[in-house]
Specification:
Layout lengths: L4 H13 L4 E2 L5 E7 L4 E9 L4 E9 L7 H12 L6 E5 L4 E9 L7 H27 L10 H5 L19
Antiparallel strand pairs: 1-2, 2-3, 3-4, 4-6, 5-6
Helix pairs in contact: 2-3
Length: about 170
């Protein structure tokens, strides 16, 4: 039996976007990787046919030492408060920052624009938080008590450049 109509629509969208991906055997999951401005991202697109849902999970390695881990977790949780779509997680076991977004569709064929938007959103959000986490990791031990996570989240100088939209779809 071949892929579900839902999964095939995800495969087709990735193909149209030129995103090389590989299906994970035995599951309706595509795996791919992107080189973002600040980091490399591993991305998974998983179809849940029983819910008619698509979940996009993007992750990038980032380790916090024992002294910085509580501040790293605060960074992730405070960043979540600013989000409209999706959420950040920190995988303590694998030292990964994760961004997850899910959409429930009304039709069996998923909308290409929604799929593409979820992927772009996941990549952009991870690329936004990584330099902030790097500042945290590079802060001297004796200055950590003075580091304000809310103020760190307000920094715009570390944001990746926003590409100008010219009406053409861009490759990531």
């Amino acid at each position: 039996m071949g892929p579900s109509r839902q999964f095939q629509s995800v495969i087709d969208t990735f193909g149209r976007q030129g995103w090389h991906s590989e299906p994970i055997e035995g599951r309706e999951v595509l795996e791919t990787a992107f080189e973002a401005h600040h980091t490399q991202i591993r991305l998974y697109a998983q179809v849940f046919t029983n819910l008619n849902a698509l979940s996009i999970v993007a992750e990038t390695p980032l380790r916090f030492d024992n002294l910085r881990e509580p501040l790293g977790l605060e960074l992730v949780m405070r960043a979540n408060k600013q989000l409209t779509i999706g959420n950040f997680e920190y995988d303590l076991d694998r030292s990964l920052i994760v961004f997850r977004a899910t959409n429930i569709f009304e039709k069996e064929l998923y909308d290409t624009d929604i799929i593409s938007s979820l992927v772009h959103c996941a990549i952009a959000e991870l690329d936004r938080i990584v330099p902030l986490a790097s500042v945290l990791n590079q802060t001297a031990d004796d200055l950590l008590d003075d580091l304000s996570i809310p103020l760190l989240l307000e920094r715009e100088d570390l944001l990746p450049p926003v590409p100008e939209y010219d009406g053409e779809e861009e490759e990531l």
